[in-house]
Amino acid sequence: MFNYTFQWKQVYARLPEMLEGALVTMQIAVLSMVIGIVLAVMLTLFRLSGNRILGGVAQAWVEVARNTPALFQIYMAHFGVASFGIHFSPWTSLLIGITFNNAGYLAENFRGALKAIPDTQARSGRSLGMSELQAFRHIVLPQMLRIAFLPMSNQMVWAVLMTSLGVTVGMNTDLYGVTQDLNALTFRTFELFFVAGVIFYAIVKLIQLATRLIAWRMFRY
Amino acid sequence: MFDTAMTLNDVMFLAQGAGMTILVTLIAVVCGTVLGIIFGVVRYQVGPVWAAPLTFFLDVFRSIPLLIQLVLTFAFIGTVMKIRISGFSVACLVLTLYTSAYCAEIVRGAIESVPPTLRRASRSLGMTWGQDMRHIVLPLATRVAFPSWIGLALSVMKDSALVYVVQVTELLKSTQILITRLQEPLFLLMICGAFYFLISFPIARIGGYLERRWSND
């Protein structure tokens, strides 16, 4: 059909390396998601606190994370911060960039979820003798996480896709980085990136399946 | 930080990059929205079984990193099909399809949000399918779709930063070129970030305002 000889064998020989890269990708995505959720809960608390400085910090974080490209945020974590004499490895920069992005988007999701929880919930918790923090921790937070579960799973998919940006700061152990290095060795651009695309697709589908199972298991009542 | 070695030429270079970002975004959003509306209506109209191939095709664009989509398309057209194509065309093509994939989802959701009883009522008043779409579905669905569409347009603008991978020098790439030359990463990145922020933030605010306003009644 095309005047081109596909060389799938070479890619097949390199498949173990690419799968190892996929593991690194997953590792970064999961880590950035876990830290991102913790930070996002913190930002949500800052916004609720009524303290103007803390609220301003949280608001600025969310707006910057949502209104600039993720690639810019990773650049900032790598090259921008280097101006202060702090040098991160590509792995760390990538993690910081994605986590920053995740936390911003998740905090906005949490804000939307909080609106759906009636005030009376927290108030009845308070009148049962809980402190403000206890009421948030035991009453509001579980409901918030449940309502925001679907947006959170979307963000997880985004985190996986965003790991491919690490290559711009010299990351070469994640799936995209490994693929690009192999490309420089073999020049089988189409075959290599096709397989990388298939692996990414499989990871994303796996995450979507897993979140559906978790949602079914956790929210069945 | 403020005593910079940046010259007027460098500023023009950055402005060119910014122009490229806006150009690519505009093309992708305009063409992608038209395509996305077509895909969305088709998907809604033919039902989930017959739309499965289209659904899969669009789903691929949402499940694979944009970088890989760009590289893969460039390699496919350039190396496999042996057609000479500029990076700019590839960037526009891929971003258009990428936009249309998300837009189709928004359009389908918006059409589904129009109560079926309303549409049946219009049909029983003797409206044709086209009239029903034009006078009943379009005004109602637009209210639902518009805020999400603004979000989509903005995210396409931010994602257009990735087209550097097919040799298109947009804002972030031109910033990086200047960083290599001037060695002032923080200052230059601040300018670049401010540009994205100043475009994105007000539009996002307008979108949020419209969403609140239109959801009340």
Automatic annotation (TrEMBL), chain A:
One GO term describing the cellular component: ATP-binding cassette (ABC) transporter complex
Residues forming coiled coils: none
GO MF, any single term: L-cystine transmembrane transporter activity
Record's keyword terms, sorted: Amino-acid transport, Cell membrane, Membrane, Transmembrane, Transmembrane helix, Transport
Bilayer disposition of the protein: Multi-pass membrane protein
Database matches in Pfam families: BPD_transp_1 (PF00528)
Keyword set includes Cell membrane: yes
InterPro entries from the UniProt entry: AA_ABC_transptr_permease_3TM (IPR010065), ArtM/GltK/GlnP/TcyL/YhdX-like (IPR043429), MetI-like (IPR000515), MetI-like_sf (IPR035906)
SUPFAM superfamilies referenced in this protein's UniProt entry, alphabetically: MetI-like (SSF161098)
Presence of the UniProt keyword Transmembrane in the record: yes
Annotated transmembrane regions: 24-46, 156-173, 193-215
Principal subcellular localisation of the protein: membrane
All residue ranges annotated as the ABC transmembrane type-1 domain in the record: 22-211
Protein name: Polar amino acid transport system permease protein
Taxonomic lineage of the native organism: Bacteria, Pseudomonadati, Pseudomonadota, Alphaproteobacteria, Rhodobacterales
TrEMBL record, chain B:
Domain ABC transmembrane type-1: start-end pairs: 18-207
Compartments in which it is found: Cell inner membrane; Cell membrane
Membrane spanning residue stretches: 20-42, 54-77, 83-104, 144-166, 186-204
Record has Protein biosynthesis as a keyword: no
Tagged with keyword Transmembrane helix: yes
UniProt keyword annotations, A-Z: Amino-acid transport, Cell membrane, Membrane, Transmembrane, Transmembrane helix, Transport
One CC-aspect GO term: ATP-binding cassette (ABC) transporter complex
Family of this protein: Belongs to the binding-protein-dependent transport system permease family. HisMQ subfamily.
Name of protein: Polar amino acid transport system permease protein
Species per Swiss-Prot/TrEMBL record: Paracoccus isoporae
